[in-house]
Amino acid sequence: MKAKPIYKIMDGKGRVLIPKELRAATGMDYGDIVKVGVSQGTVSVKKVDLIEVGDMSPEAVEAYVHAAIREMPEEKQISIAAKLLELVDQRKGQRHE
């Protein structure tokens, strides 16, 4: 049986919400890395586990960091969070000098 099409409205920034039932059917979850592409006028979105080698765009690096952190033990996540907060505090201190 063919699934009934779902119609969504794109917002002013080009975003479209992928409905929960479609995310669940494809195994997509918060923080997952997705590859967005276009072929023959059709936009595709695919969950991936790794970004392409050599892609150092800010978006790719952020996606990689999110994916890596999700797989780390909780104590390592807390350690990284503490280091990030320390860096933010240092930058704030430098701005006020």
UniProtKB/TrEMBL annotation:
Protein name: SpoVT-AbrB domain-containing protein
InterPro entries referenced in this protein's UniProt entry, alphabetically: SpoVT-AbrB_dom (IPR007159), SpoVT-AbrB_sf (IPR037914)
Keyword DNA-binding recorded: yes
Entry's Gene Ontology molecular function annotations: DNA binding
Positions in coiled-coil regions: none
Annotated ranges, domain SpoVT-AbrB: 5-50
Keyword Repeat on entry: no
Protein keywords: DNA-binding
Source superkingdom: Bacteria
Source organism per UniProt: Desulfitobacterium dichloroeliminans (strain LMG P-21439 / DCA1)
